[in-house]
Amino acid sequence: MKALIMNTHYIVFAGILMLMVIGLFGALTKRNLIKILIALGILDTGINLFFIAIGYVTGKTAPIFSKQGLSSGNMVDPVPQALVLTAIVIGVAVLALGLSIVIRVYEHYGTLNVSKIKKMRG
Amino acid sequence: MKKPGLKKRLRVKNIFVFLIVLYFGFQMFSVISFLDLNNVKGVAKYYLENDIKDTQSANVVTSIVVNYRGFDTLGEVTVLFLAATGLGAILSGHRKVKKQKILANTMLQYGSKPLLAIVILFGAYIFIHGHLSPGGGFQGGTVIATGFLMMLLALEGYEIKHGYVKWTESLAGLTFVTVGLIGLVLLGSFLANFLPLGKVGDLFSAGVIPIIYVAVGFKVGSELTGLLDNMMGVIE
Q1: A43-91: pLDDT as tens digits
Q2: In angstroms, how far is CA B33 from the centroid of its own chain?
């Protein structure tokens, strides 16, 4: 805990954890399917930010050799950035897939409430 | 009679869930405090130090995505393809309603047409310069898809030609796999670099990285465009 408070960007982590907690809470307690998907989107954003924040090193630059004299010792961790790069696009596609399933569910049952759908038959 | 009881039970459950989620948050917080956030080490250190020697790509993130972990990226593009295809399959047979409730005004209708060309140019710039600047196929493809989203929202009855989208997507995916297979045939491993590396900072450098990233850009752009087209106009 001490090392965390020494670190200058612990407040960033607090915000990220808040996003993740809000997303998880929403996904577990909401009854509306679209609200559940929104909560999952918030959780997704929180996790992506979490990866990026872990890779960040205070005072170092982006991992791009954009000008002469930049050494590899002055750069932040590139691996989380590479992972998040693809995760964002895939997150969008998966969210769209989920929304399309929600459209079909609404057509079939006439409601978006999960509790009501559970009670129905067929 | 039943309803208040159900609601109360839900509220009690919500408090439980809230406490559990809060506990999860604290656990995450304690995990973070154990992390060493002041050094880059392990495989990341190797990537940073050997990037210029191995790939001559100025952007280390690009060389990880396309070169060191190129096979992983092929898998991720496949996941994207499956999501887009699944969405098309789920929403197939929908009667599309292309009427807008209120027509977009004239400025928007005529302004969006030249803007589409500029947006596509910008997206192409982003994915062609993926190995030199903070950009790449995924970002450029997304920018292109936003251009088509603008057209779908601004113009009534705007249609994206499915044939072109499918052909672009297939050819881009085929290019990715073909480049990988040529590496397999010539150098003995999938996605091996068989082109001259050039000098770091040049447009034609970094071997196969620009080719693959342009293919990824076209693939992501056409997939997201098709996805948007499937999602548009399904409300009846």
Answers
A1: 999 999 988 888 887 777 788 887 777 777 788 888 888 889 888 888 8
A2: 32
Query: What's the whole-model pTM score?
Result: 0.81
Residue B92 touches chain A, beta carbons under 8 Å: no
Residues B51-77: tens digit of each pLDDT: 777 778 888 888 888 888 888 888 888
Q: Which domain holds residue B214?
A: 58-231
Please tell me the number of Cα atoms within 13 Å of A109 on its side-chain side.
Answer: 19
Token output for B178: 């073909």
- Name which of B40, B71, B95, B129 to mutate to probe chain A: the one with the most chain A Cβ atoms within 10 A of its Cβ: B40
Cβ atoms of A15 and A70 closer than 8 Å: no
Has residue B70 been placed in a domain?
yes
Could you give the number of structural domains in chain B? 1
Q: Which domain holds residue A37?
A: 2-62+70-119
Q: Do A86 and B44 touch (CB under 8 A)?
A: no
Q: What is the ipTM of this complex?
A: 0.77
Identify all chain A residues contacting B60, using CB atoms and an 8 Å cutoff: 63-65, 75, 78
| Domain of residue A13, CATH code | 1.10.287.3510
